[in-house]
Design a protein that fits this description.
The chain has about 200 residues and is α+β, with helices and mostly antiparallel strands. It contains five helices and eight strands, in the order αβββαββαββαβα. The strands form two sheets. Strands 1, 2, 3, 4, 5 and 8 form a six-stranded mixed sheet that branches. Strands 6-7 form a two-stranded antiparallel ribbon. The radius of gyration is 30 Å and the shape is extended.
Length: about 200
């Protein structure tokens, strides 16, 4: 039970200190003119593959933006590799010759569309129709989807009048970005070893 003397001796309560309150907020301000800072966009990814069926795209009209190569596509792991012709011989029948075409969507995002090249002079309707779509996209915006009844790709043209925005990189540079870490040049590469069954010997 408190007494009048206790009340006289009781110290005033100290208000809680908020450590998040800065008394001098201006001390946090950076000094300088930052309006002239230039930020340069750097292209870090270029996918290899067909655009989705809802994506309108254009392909570059110049031949220099094509790149024939040997492509290995592993569907089970969703991985794509570019091989030297010599290495592709080690897994004959798994890698295939393709021609990569530079394409961009309406936002200017680039991709490389692989169109299979005829093997021993033979092409199927899927490959032929894919090439036709890619060539059509050199002059107009199209989207592309599979027509299962016709066993071919069908192109749907649009009335888009937007000029495509092409990357400034060369085709070689674009391929290098797209295949970064996924280029196979030696027979002891883990993917080649696995596909040859040498990892279970």
């Amino acid at each position: 039970m408190s007494t009048p003397l206790d009340a006289q001796l009781r110290l005033p309560e100290t208000p809680a200190v908020n450590s998040n309150v800065i008394s001098d907020i201006e001390s946090l301000r950076l000094v300088g003119d930052f309006e002239d800072i230039q930020v340069e966009a750097v292209l870090i990814t270029v996918p290899i593959g067909k655009p989705s069926k809802t994506t309108f795209f254009r392909t570059h009209p110049e031949q220099q933006y094509t790149f024939p190569c040997m492509l290995l596509e592993l569907k089970d792991s969703n991985e794509t590799y570019i091989l030297t012709p010599q290495i592709s011989e080690l897994i004959r029948g798994l890698a295939r010759p393709v021609c990569l075409y530079l394409a961009v969507d309406t936002n200017g995002a680039p991709r490389l569309i692989p169109v299979p090249l005829p093997a021993n002079g033979n092409s199927n309707q899927w490959h032929l129709s894919l090439q036709q779509c890619v060539l059509m996209a050199k002059t107009r915006w199209i989207r592309m989807q599979a027509d299962m009844s016709a066993k071919a790709y069908a192109a749907c043209a649009s009335g888009i009048v937007l000029e495509p925005t092409w990357p400034t990189e060369t085709m070689s540079e674009l391929v290098q970005i797209a295949a970064r870490g996924n280029v196979i040049t030696t027979a002891d590469h883990p993917v080649i070893v696995r596909l040859r069954g040498e990892d279970v010997l």
